[in-house]
């Protein structure tokens, strides 16, 4: 069973990363396809992410999942809160019985250097010591992923990454960021893990 990483955040919140090695037929035996996905690999990612939901909580009713206008999947009545991410041959999910959650995974690539100005403020580049002209693309990917996780946690769209998501105080010992989400003045802690070819970020509150 290709569980790449699994973590119990609390008694009510769990997350995992699945390395996709199975065929589409394997997932379709277990998971309903909620929307039309034409690209074969994206369809496989979609199915693997939903498969993870019930792997983390066996009573997760993924046949009841709906898609909001913002494209965020949700369960009517919020029996569970959940978030899904996929990248390359990996799918990640976080599920909670009592907290809003967000998760993101990314494969670090150097092209992130060219778009850093679209999601990092000058203040954040100073805080995280982003050195030009050759910044650490793994750090830049981690910062992007952290903001993606916050965006998914919020779930209601209309978020400006520079204006509304302000990252602060990277704590390498605790593997966390402090974050201010200015749309509702919410102070948040973002957790992260760095693997050889993948970064993971998540939050719950």
Give a written overview of the molecule:
The chain has 205 residues and is α+β, with helices and mostly antiparallel strands. The protein has 2 domains: 3-99, Ribosomal Protein L22, Chain A, CATH 3.90.470; 104-204, 4'-phosphopantetheinyl transferase domain (Ribosomal Protein L22, Chain A, Alpha-Beta Complex). It has helices at 24-28, 40-56, 122-127, 137-154, 161-164, and strands at residues 3-8, 13-19, 66-67, 73-74, 81-87, 90-96, 101-106, 165-171, 176-181, 186-194, 199-204. Strands 7-11-10-9-8 form a 5-stranded antiparallel beta sheet. It is globular.
How many whole angstroms does the radius of gyration measure? 17 Å
The CATH topology of the largest domain: Ribosomal Protein L22, Chain A
The CATH C-level name of the largest domain is: Alpha Beta
Question: How many structurally independent domains?
Answer: 2
Query: In which order are the strands of the major sheet placed?
Result: 7-11-10-9-8
Strand content of the residues, in percent? 25-35%
Shape: globular
Helix content: 10-25%
Number of helices: 5
How would you characterize the largest beta sheet?
Answer: 5 strands, antiparallel
Mean pLDDT: 92
Q: Report the CATH architecture of the largest domain.
A: Alpha-Beta Complex
CA-CA gap between termini? 30 Å
The CATH superfamily of the largest domain is 4'-phosphopantetheinyl transferase domain
Structural class estimated from helices and strands: alpha+beta
Extract low-pLDDT stretches: none
Total strand segments? 11
């Amino acid at each position: 069973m290709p569980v790449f990483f699994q973590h119990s955040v609390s008694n009510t919140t769990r997350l995992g990363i699945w390395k996709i090695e199975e065929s589409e037929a394997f997932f379709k035996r277990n998971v309903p396809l909620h929307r039309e996905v034409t690209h074969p690999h994206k369809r496989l990612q979609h199915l693997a992410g939903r498969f993870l939901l019930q792997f983390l909580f066996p009573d997760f009713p993924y046949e009841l999942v709906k898609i909001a206008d913002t494209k965020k999947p949700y369960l009517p009545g919020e029996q569970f809160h959940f978030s899904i991410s996929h990248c390359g041959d990996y799918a990640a999910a976080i599920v909670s019985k009592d907290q809003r959650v967000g998760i993101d995974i990314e494969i670090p690539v150097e092209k992130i250097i060219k778009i850093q100005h679209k999601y990092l403020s000058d203040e954040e580049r100073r805080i995280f010591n982003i050195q030009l002209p050759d910044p650490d693309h793994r750090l830049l990917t981690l910062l992007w992923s952290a903001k993606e996780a916050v965006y998914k946690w919020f779930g209601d769209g209309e978020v400006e990454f520079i204006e509304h998501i302000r990252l602060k105080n990277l704590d390498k010992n605790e593997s966390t960021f402090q974050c201010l989400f200015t749309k509702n003045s919410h102070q948040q802690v973002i957790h992260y893990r760095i693997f050889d070819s993948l970064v993971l970020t998540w939050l719950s509150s």
